[in-house]
Amino acid sequence: MPEDATLTDQLRRRIAASGPISVAEYMREANAAYYAAGDPFGAGGDFVTAPEISQMFGEMVGLWLADLWIRAGRPEPVHYVELGPGRGTLAHDALRSATGFGLSPSVQLVETSAALRSAQRERLPLAEWHDSIESLPRDGPLLIVANEFFDALPVRQMIATEDGWRERMVALDGDDGFAAETGTRAVDALVPDAVRGAPVGSIYEHCPDAATILFDLLRRIAAQGGALLAIDYGYDRSGIGETLQAVKDHARAEPFADPGAVDLTAHVNFQELANIGRVAEMGVHGPVGQGRWLAMLGIVTRARTLASAAPDQRSAIAAALKRLTAPDEMGELFKVLGFTAPGWPTPEGFA
Ligand code: SAH
């Protein structure tokens, strides 16, 4: 693809001129190009996300939002906000289900990819789009959903050396490639006490954009009311380990090859996100496994209803249910973390 060649050339020229770039900077450039190139979702793409597996996923999210909004006293105006909505499938299914309970919010989508915006426009013609969270409405509660959004944001990698922690950098490799190397910048202050004594060679990842975006959104919710639901794969205790990975055609690929042609993600640090919620004085709920959360919202009953309405779909529905909830599939690696504004009711799904 010509775009990929261009990004590889651009990054190589930049590194040749001013030295290696951080892993985060590399990931930011690579993912911006990757998502700008079009639609990576679904069986014919690079990976499949939960809303693309079954409508039941979005329906449970819509139910969660509607229940919370009803118990908060049905405030109006109210805004549905989604971060990185992909094809718009989750919003479409969630809003159809929420409307059934009387919740018909405005639709506000935060999306940087023009190609994905046009896919979203087909599903959600009345939505409004935002380049960043700054321009989101300020006149009512925000009901914010982020599925597989935080994992796409760039991570910094710190590596333990004999002389302390250094930032991991991306340098030139051969005539046309890239390779990670240990940089010279000391970053000990960025590594939490709990992991500081880890053995030489250990890697600690941090996602500064996730922390900033979450903190800014929680401040909005504190002022305007509302809630935020983050669903992603990740870990619930900060620690050592490299989770940066590349995916292409449903298989693992090399992270520092073909920037813009592979999807780069890193596991989400749910402990850090939850701590940000506590600092912002929000109600913090979870994280719990996606399987347990969906079960508590009633996905098993929903699957039965769908199957009896369409008996020829019975085995496809059962397979989707298993994929979304089984512990060895998406049920435990994927986690759900909820935040609620002060004074808002306790949400379903976390008890
Ligand atoms: N939520 C969707 C898609 C997840 S992929 C689903 O579950 O299917 C990540 C999404 O985040 C894409 O839509 C991508 O274009 C978007 N994205 C990535 N970085 C972004 C950023 N910094 N700001 C806004 N959107 C971003």
How does this model look, in words?
The protein has 351 residues and is of the alpha/beta class. The chain has a domain at 47-151 and 208-236 and 266-340: Rossmann fold, CATH 3.40.50. It has helices spanning 2-18, 23-36, 50-53, 55-71, 89-99, 114-123, 193-196, 208-224, 270-279, 290-297, 299-309, 314-325, 327-331; strands at 21-22, 79-83, 106-110, 128-130, 142-147, 156-161, 164-173, 177-186, 203-206, 226-235, 245-248, 251-253, 263-265, 268-269, 283-289, 334-340. Strands 2, 3, 4, 5, 10, 14, 15 and 16 form an eight-stranded mixed sheet that branches. A hairpin with a 2-residue loop joins strand 6 and strand 7 (164-173). Helix 8 packs parallel to helix 9 (270-279) and helix 11 runs antiparallel to helix 12 (314-325). S-adenosyl-L-homocysteine binds next to helix 3. The site of S-adenosyl-L-homocysteine has 18 residues, from helix 3.
Q: Report the portion of residues in β strands.
A: 15-25%
Identify low-pLDDT runs: none
* CATH superfamily annotation of the domain at 47-151 and 208-236 and 266-340: Vaccinia Virus protein VP39
CATH class of the domain at 47-151 and 208-236 and 266-340: Alpha Beta
Reading the helices and strands in chain order gives HEHHHEHEHEEEEEHEHEEEEEHEHHHHE
Helical amount: 25-40%
Structural class: alpha/beta
Give the C-alpha Rg.
21 Å
Total number of strands = 16
End-to-end Cα distance: 48 Å
Q: Helical region count? A: 13
Q: Which word captures the global form?
A: globular
CATH architecture of the domain at 47-151 and 208-236 and 266-340: 3-Layer(aba) Sandwich
User: Which whole number gives the mean pLDDT?
Assistant: 96
Quick one: biggest sheet? 8 strands, mixed
Bound ligands, each once: S-adenosyl-L-homocysteine
